């Protein structure tokens, strides 16, 4: 069954990869730029799937890590051009000492991944060591998203406030500007690498233990495992990948605002994953691509009612495909394979078991 699942995943993943690799040759620069953003969102969705899909904990504040990574790189670009006007407006005429490390783009890249990971580790330590789970975990992460969004708005002397950081240079990597297509393929390569990393992690002994923690935490504790340690580690890795996604988002988007660190972005992330199918990884890929593509398409064709249409589509998918698009496909395929094996006699029938008892 596992082999069959990997076969489906490989086939669908291969088709998606071929499509994304060929996309710059088929579409305008505007569409390529949009698709580049969608690929960044794939990385972000994969990060949440590690937490929600494999530990069963719904984080409603993952945009905190995404936004923190994005702000690190955005501030680096802004500060390299001199003291920004939003600082001088508050009487700050020199770059503060604690922001000077961001003058180095490589350092900003490192901080953009390490700080979200560190923040996730600290949050995870206090939450999981206190045995907080379920809806209480979701409420805490939701409150954190609101807190950090307000914090970014109120620290306007250092963050640009409500307007965020705009007019950022497009597609620079370590100070060197790249062509749109080159940056697109860079993001695609990173996304493939992240997917392979998460697939390896979830398929390893560690990943199987994490899934066992999700199914029965008390039993895992009985076998001398520490469930909190596994949750903290997976939450930290998720924070790291979210920060990476945030940094890749900034050069292709051209700006970042408090909305990218708050509840709105966190909620969108949850919807992408729910639509694609959590706990599958490929569902994160499909959900992020399909929902963002539909949003873009419908907003152009039906600008007055596109949000109503998207909402209706989401409701229909949740009602008729409760496991998500890919999750429902897997469920159907596994049932089909099992039925075929039973018909061929390779899987014991219930009647045979009763006859032999």
From TrEMBL:
It is found in: Cell membrane. Keywords: Cell membrane, Membrane, Transmembrane, Transmembrane helix. This is Urea ABC transporter permease subunit UrtC. CDD domains: TM_PBP1_LivM_like. It is a multi-pass membrane protein. The chain crosses the membrane at residues 6-27, 34-54, 60-79, 107-128, 134-159, 180-198, 232-256, 268-293, 305-326. One of its GO terms (molecular function) is branched-chain amino acid transmembrane transporter activity. Pfam families: BPD_transp_2 (PF02653). InterPro entries: ABC_transp_permease, ABC_transptr_urea_perm_UrtC, LivM-like. Its main location: membrane. GO terms for cellular component: plasma membrane.
């Amino acid at each position: 069954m596992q082999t069959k699942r990997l076969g489906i995943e490989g086939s669908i993943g291969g088709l998606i990869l071929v499509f994304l690799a060929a996309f710059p040759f088929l579409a305008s620069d505007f569409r390529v730029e949009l698709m580049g953003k969608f690929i960044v969102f794939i990385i972000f969705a994969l990060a949440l799937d590690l937490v929600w899909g494999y530990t069963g904990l719904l984080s409603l504040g993952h945009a905190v890590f995404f936004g923190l990574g994005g702000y690190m790189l955005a501030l680096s670009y802004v500060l390299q051009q001199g003291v920004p006007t939003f600082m001088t407006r508050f009487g700050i005429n020199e770059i503060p000492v604690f922001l000077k490390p961001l003058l180095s783009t490589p350092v900003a890249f490192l901080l953009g991944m390490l700080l979200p990971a560190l923040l996730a580790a600290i949050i995870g330590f206090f939450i999981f060591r206190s045995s907080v789970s379920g809806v209480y975990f979701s409420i805490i992460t939701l409150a954190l998203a609101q807190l950090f969004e307000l914090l970014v708005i109120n620290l306007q002397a250092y963050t640009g406030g409500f307007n965020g950081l705009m007019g950022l240079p497009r597609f620079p990597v370590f100070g060197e500007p790249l062509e749109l297509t080159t940056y697109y393929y860079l993001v695609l390569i990173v996304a493939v690498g992240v997917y392979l990393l998460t697939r390896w992690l979830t398929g390893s002994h560690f990943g199987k233990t994490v899934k066992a923690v999700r199914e029965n935490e008390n039993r895992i504790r009985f076998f001398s495992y520490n469930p909190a340690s596994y949750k903290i580690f997976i939450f930290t890795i998720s924070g790291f990948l979210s920060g990476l996604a945030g940094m890749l988002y900034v050069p292709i988007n051209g700006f970042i605002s408090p909305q990218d660190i708050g509840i709105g972005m966190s909620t969108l992330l949850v919807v992408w994953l729910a639509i694609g199918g959590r706990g599958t990884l490929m569902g994160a890929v499909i959900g992020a691509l399909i929902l963002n593509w539909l949003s873009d398409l419908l907003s152009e064709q039906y600008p007055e009612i596109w949000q109503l249409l998207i909402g209706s589509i989401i409701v229909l998918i949740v009602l008729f495909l409760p496991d998500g698009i890919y999750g429902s496909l897997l469920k159907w395929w596994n049932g089909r394979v099992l039925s075929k094996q039973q018909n061929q006699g390779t899987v014991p029938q219930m009647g045979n078991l009763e006859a032999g008892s």
